[in-house]
Amino acid sequence: MAKLGDWIEPHPHGIYVKPADAWIDPSIPSARALVTHGHADHARGGHAAVWATPETLAIMDARYGEQAGHPVGYGETIRLGPKDNGVDVGFVPAGHVLGSAQIVLDYRGERVVVSGDYKRRADPTCAPFEPVKCDVFVTEATFGLPVFRHPETGDEIDKLVAALHANPDRCILVGAYALGKAQRVIAELRERGHEAPIYIHGALQRLCTLYAEHGVRLGELIPTADVPKAAMMGHVVMCPPGALNDRWSRRLPDPITAMASGWMRVRQRARQKNVELPLILSDHADWDELTATLIEIAPKEVWVTHGRDDALVHWCMTRQIKARALALVGFEDEDD
């Protein structure tokens, strides 16, 4: 008797969909790639053909040059492989970053959903996660331990605003990854009425412009280049995490160093990065959201792609849900 999902093959460098002759998020150049979202640990350059949402293709174009892209909108279904024995492929929102998608695969009466990275919190920069009932659910487990329970987003943004108001002669320098996290922090500030200019490191400008072109309201953003130090006093300054403690930051007005990441829950990480104001703001589901998602979707099997897979596999097994960990490589926490 055939195993459930035996037409899907996990390999170290990606997930191979045999009847479609296509790879999901391959880490090496492939002839046919289905890409969940634009982070570099999922979207690589060099593929002969790429199927992804229009937003993800735009991000890949910006990062790697023009792609041989085939846009697939949310809710749209295409068939890959032979007409009489192909796979129906759909893209539904994952709630991770702009354009992020779960890939829904239907073949011979079975449904597999490869979620990529996802979160369940509201985010003004991307479409919310859409649960899809399926036979096999391929899930991440970046924060797959019970200790990881993210606080309310509004509380973390309030901490940032309070520090800003309490230190009018300084700036708040926020380290946030260039794709997704930086734009989310800015958009969350705007949602809470912070309409003052926000200063940005040059490395963030290209993707902030792309987000704005796709309708995300980021307000007035000013590159820090050639801006007098005094002009940035009492303002938020955004930069990539790698710039928090380099020479670039020395020209800022006595910055209070902050970082927006789910990993700021781990105090040692904050200390290692000399972060004074840790902001626990993640673009991944926390433990409660991972387990609640599995209960909601109710798959027959769960495949865990990366992260803290042992704990999530154990949780599944104690609830009579068949589960396995996949040994994929190349997945880093660029996005958190």
UniProtKB/TrEMBL annotation:
Instruction: Give the EC number(s) listed in the UniProt record.
Output: 3.1.-.-
Which class of enzymes does this protein belong to? hydrolase
Show the GO MF annotations.
Answer: exonuclease activity; ligase activity; RNA endonuclease activity
Query: Hey, what's the signal peptide range on this chain?
Result: none
> Which UniProt keyword terms apply here?
Exonuclease, Hydrolase, Ligase, Nuclease
Q: Does the keyword Ligase apply?
A: yes
Gene3D superfamilies per the record?
Answer: Ribonuclease Z/Hydroxyacylglutathione hydrolase-like
What's the name of the protein?
Ligase-associated DNA damage response exonuclease
